[in-house]
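Figure 3 (text version): structure tokens given as input.
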């Protein structure tokens, strides 16, 4: 087998490149379906609405690490569907919640408080 591969390396490289191009789209769809399956399970449990502002457009929603340990979590567990699988396997821990991307990013950049929370204390003529 090694001898065959060594002798036909150029042909095999072309064959695998063509095969990859042919199946690239179907592989991408399969990965998306797998990701969506795990994401749906997680959001079915945690809900489909931002707990801060009430946004309910599912494309804007994300899972927030309430303890601000997202970087460590991604380093230990991973991201994407791997993280969703981890949440399911660990029986949906209570230190996670659903936020929209705006609230999640705002919390990160505002020292742990969403701008919606801090806006309440600003004068009414203040432009945020």
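Below: residues designed for each position.
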């Amino acid at each position: 087998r090694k001898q065959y591969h060594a002798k036909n390396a150029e042909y095999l490289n072309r064959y695998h490149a063509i095969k990859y191009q042919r199946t690239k789209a179907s592989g991408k769809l399969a990965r998306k379906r797998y990701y969506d399956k795990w994401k749906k399970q997680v959001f079915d449990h945690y809900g489909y609405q931002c707990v801060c502002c009430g946004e309910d457009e599912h494309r804007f929603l994300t899972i927030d690490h309430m303890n601000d340990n997202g970087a460590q979590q991604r380093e230990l567990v991973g991201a994407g569907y791997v993280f969703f699988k981890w949440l399911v396997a660990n029986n949906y821990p209570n230190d996670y919640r659903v936020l929209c991307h705006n609230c999640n990013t705002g919390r990160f950049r505002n020292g742990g408080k969403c701008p919606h929370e801090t806006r309440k204390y600003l004068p009414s003529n203040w432009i945020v």
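Residues 9-46 form the longest helix (38 residues).
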